[in-house]
């Protein structure tokens, strides 16, 4: 390897503290300027705001038909064909009739086409969202509330028509309210909330939700009817009951499930093997439901073998109906969880495609677009939507380049809903549950994250596992809140366990590094440079003070306590002498004073102590009141024993915190704050050696 060429340069300037830097750079009140700028309104700003709120107005007039038209057309048809079986299958997860899955694949997709900013994601039904909705609909509209007496069989049966109608109302209210939450969060620029959903958390959560999906579909795969369980550990109770009911398995339903899962799995592998040779993937799910419907119709699976089928599918679209407002109070918590999960999945996938193709996804606009999709969809009796990884990958791989592909997929669904839907009334529900199982294959691969995270970042692995376990045990809604809390706890613990270091100077440079990490780094004589790897706030303020004392070897509390005792003893002797002097005459008083031992307090600094301490605050991005008070105490306490304390590397926000928190005042000015550690070191050396203003000169070769 060729030897690296080193360039020499030098800098000669005065030592700069924060006050001098503010004067030289002419610091302005940025907050005031931002407020003034936000209150201004011009024609160009109004136009920009309008185009930002309705993105389709900015890109559709310039849509290049020759370049993108064919790819979007093929992609839209391919995704629309996928939407049909997935929409019907995920409707079962949401515990509503399958046709409502088709509605949810139409209205929200058109709304997102107008307001969304991602060009490649496929909005529509999604397994995780559907299973969360299904938990709410079954909780608020259980089958036990719709039992009627059948005079023919002399037994109680479920009034499925009333049950399904009520569950649709619950799902619509839940969807509408979750959309309102997303709109409100978007309007107040709350898109940053997704930053609290780290990638390990999202992947662990979706994997756990996939386990809930699998368990919820076992009743369709085996043809059994377990009781509805809700609350913590409901998944375990449901699983145990399904195992208990296995002897009652409907053999016809089980055979249909096994054949469908096997055929779809093989066909998916064939698709993956031939994906480079095929212009578009083989629509195996559509072929599966067509074949299954024909076989069910010809063999009469329902009557002959008792296989549960989809049943009546009304043709046409439903008229808009405003959701039942009385349900809002009962679903408000679930709606907020649904809004956060849906947005988190959408923005995560949207950013992946945006980085790949070099465009920007507006996180706040995505919240607004998804909120409108869900709130308007709720009025048309849809259930909440998000983006699907499998459909998005198909949309991208088949040539989709813009949101037009999504709009064309909605047209395909509209055609199916208006004219083809009733042909699938004989479709076995076991086929739809099998489609769900096969589509969860990708989520099951996320278990491979565990060994990868073990090698790269074990804290992230703990977050992944914690999220997975909490979500499995406490259901997707409560599991999300518990997982976010657990993730925040890991952050808090890491800020409470920072690394404290003493810094030394790399010879002949202005670079300072931890003494314990480098053999050639030397401590600056008579100056102690202390740094913490975390920000300074109430949770670790006391630890910061203790670490400074431990690293410096100065027990400041003990020293100040001893000093106070000596001071108190000296004052006591002075008071005692004064009383004796009042009783004696002036001559006797002088003689007495000559015989009295005087206790003196040594005000000279201990020669073993450093002359100055430099606190490197470059890792600190904010200071709360406790943090500011801690720095005040450090400067006061060490100052009492003759050690000057200065701060270095303060960010602008930290300087503002020091100003408002009372650290800076008439006695303490910005002259004790320095832009760099080297400026602070040179200042301290100048104060204690020459008492002159130094030039800061660096030479590098």
UniProtKB/TrEMBL annotation:
Its primary localisation, in coarse terms, equals membrane
Q: Known Pfam families for this protein? A: STAS (PF01740), Sulfate_transp (PF00916)
Name the source organism: Monopterus albus
The protein's name in its UniProt record: STAS domain-containing protein
One annotated GO biological process:
transmembrane transport
All copies of domain STAS, residue ranges: 517-684
For this UniProt record, the keywords arranged alphabetically read as follows: Coiled coil, Membrane, Transmembrane, Transmembrane helix
Q: Which domain of life is it from?
A: Eukaryota
Q: Which residues form a coiled coil?
A: 556-592
Q: Where in the cell is it found?
A: Membrane
């Amino acid at each position: 390897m060729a030897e690296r060429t080193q360039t020499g340069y030098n800098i000669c300037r005065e030592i700069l503290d924060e006050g001098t830097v503010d004067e030289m750079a002419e610091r302005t009140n940025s907050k005031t300027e931002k407020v003034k700028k936000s209150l201004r309104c011009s024609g160009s700003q109004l136009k920009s705001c309008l185009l930002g709120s309705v993105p389709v107005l900015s890109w559709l007039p310039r849509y290049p038909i020759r370049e993108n038209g064919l790819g979007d057309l093929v992609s839209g048809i391919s995704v629309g064909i996928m939407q049909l079986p997935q929409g019907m299958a995920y409707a079962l997860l949401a515990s509503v009739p399958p046709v409502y899955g088709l509605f949810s694949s139409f209205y929200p997709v058109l709304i997102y086409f107008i307001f969304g900013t991602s060009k490649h994601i496929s909005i529509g039904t999604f397994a995780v969202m559907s299973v969360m909705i299904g938990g709410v609909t079954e909780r608020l509209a259980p089958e036990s509330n719709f039992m009627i007496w059948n005079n023919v069989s002399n037994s109680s049966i479920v009034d499925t028509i009333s049950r399904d109608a009520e569950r649709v109302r619950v799902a619509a209210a839940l969807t509408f309210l979750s959309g309102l939450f997303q709109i409100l969060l978007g309007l107040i620029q709350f898109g940053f909330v997704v930053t609290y959903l780290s990638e390990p958390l999202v992947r662990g959560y979706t994997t756990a939700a996939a386990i809930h999906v699998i368990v919820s579909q076992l009743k369709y795969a085996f043809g059994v009817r377990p009781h509805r369980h809700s609350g913590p550990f409901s998944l375990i109770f449901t699983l145990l009951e399904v195992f208990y009911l296995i002897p009652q398995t409907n053999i016809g339903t089980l055979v249909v499930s096994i054949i469908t899962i096997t055929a779809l799995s093989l066909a998916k592998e064939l698709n993956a093997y031939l994906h480079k040779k095929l212009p578009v993937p083989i629509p195996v799910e559509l072929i599966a439901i067509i074949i299954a419907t024909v076989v069910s119709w010809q063999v009469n699976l329902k009557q002959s073998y008792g296989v549960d089928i989809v049943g009546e599918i009304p043709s046409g679209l439903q008229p808009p109906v405003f959701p039942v407002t009385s349900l809002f109070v009962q679903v408000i918590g679930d709606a907020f969880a649904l809004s956060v999960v849906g947005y988190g999945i959408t923005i995560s996938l949207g950013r992946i495609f945006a980085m790949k193709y070099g465009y920007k996804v507006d996180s706040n606009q995505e919240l607004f677009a998804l909120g409108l999709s869900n709130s308007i969809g709720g009025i048309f009796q849809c259930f909440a939507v998000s983006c699907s990884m499998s459909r998005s990958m198909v949309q991208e791989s088949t040539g989709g380049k813009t949101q037009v592909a999504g709009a064309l997929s909605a047209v395909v669904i509209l055609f199916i809903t208006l004219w083809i839907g009733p042909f699938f009334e004989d479709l076995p529900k076991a086929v739809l549950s099998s489609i769900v199982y096969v589509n969860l294959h990708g989520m099951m691969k996320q278990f491979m994250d565990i060994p990868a995270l073990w090698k790269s970042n074990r804290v992230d692995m703990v977050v992944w596992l914690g999220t997975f376990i909490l979500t499995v045990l406490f259901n997707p809604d409560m599991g999300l809140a518990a997982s976010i809390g657990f993730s925040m706890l890991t952050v808090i613990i890491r800020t409470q366990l920072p690394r404290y270091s003493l810094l030394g100077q790399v010879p002949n440079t202005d670079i300072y590094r931890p003494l314990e990490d480098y053999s050639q780094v030397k401590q600056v004589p008579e100056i102690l440079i202390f740094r913490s790897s975390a920000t300074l706030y109430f949770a670790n303020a006391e630890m910061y003070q203790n670490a400074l004392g431990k690293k410096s070897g100065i027990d400041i509390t003990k020293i100040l306590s001893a000093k106070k005792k000596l001071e108190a003893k000296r004052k006591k002797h002075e008071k005692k002498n004064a009383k004796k002097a009042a009783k004696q005459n002036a001559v006797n008083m002088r003689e007495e004073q000559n015989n009295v031992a005087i206790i003196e307090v040594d005000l000279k600094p201990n020669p073993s102590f450093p002359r100055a301490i430099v606190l490197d605050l470059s890792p600190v991005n904010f200071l709360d009141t406790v943090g500011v008070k801690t720095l005040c105490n450090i400067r006061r306490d060490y100052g009492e024993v003759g050690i000057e304390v200065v701060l270095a590397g303060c960010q602008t926000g930290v300087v503002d915190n020091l100003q408002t928190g009372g650290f800076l005042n008439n006695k303490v000015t910005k002259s004790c704050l320095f832009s760099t550690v080297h400026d602070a070191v040179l200042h301290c050396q100048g104060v204690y050696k020459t008492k002159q203003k130094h030039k800061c000169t660096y030479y590098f070769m």
